[in-house]
Please model this.
Amino acid sequence: MKALAARRHHPMALLVILLLALVATGGLYAALQPQTAQAEAYTDSDVEAGEALFLANCATCHGLDAAGQTDPDGQTLGPSLIGVGAAAVDFQVGTGRMPMQHSGAQAREKPQQMNEEQTRQLAAYVASLGPGPAVPDEEWLDTSQGDATRGGEIFRINCAMCHNAAGAGGALTRGKYAPPVVGVEGKHVYEAMDTGPQNMPVFNETNLSPEDKRDVITYLEALDETGSPGGISLGSLGPVTEGLYAWTIILSLLIGSAVWLGAKAK
Model:
């Protein structure tokens, strides 16, 4: 004890104590940090197969190390994928947006280029590069537990300004757009909120809880099932479209009547 007491005034004592505290804090954080079911389900073979798929299909734009890549003019070919998580891969590849068909203001949805297993393997590889949003658990996609009324309120506050209240999508600036969200698989809606693809903001758990996202998915599913009770939806684009259709029909009738009356007068 006397020996320890004598050494506590040593110049290196404070540094040793600080290092021990950092090691203890890091160990506790790693031990207590919750792990997602999806992360635990990935195996080394999944990661290896995903890396092979990445090098064959994605590295041209995102770089061999997935850290992003630019062309000689400094234009971004593909952003870094380190830390985007499995959810971003599952959304982009699962909706066919990636691999991208051609460069443009926005990646368009198209038929999937990879099957479910390949998508999962690619997600496993990207998830291994750094922590990020995971593919959601089935619990948060079960709309039987969701509240469509509450989901509609959340959607109108956070999403309707771009996707419109009926979820039909809308135009943005410089060739960008908010795609329709009605009829989209619930998993992909959740992943879009979690990862913020294209021009969409990220709605992580600080903004919207998993319960909130499930309610939004429930609302969109209810919209899809309800359809357009008022008749022809006209794209669900609101009064401007409805007015245009009304005036087009009325003017056509007026012009037709004028032509008919003129012909009768002769």
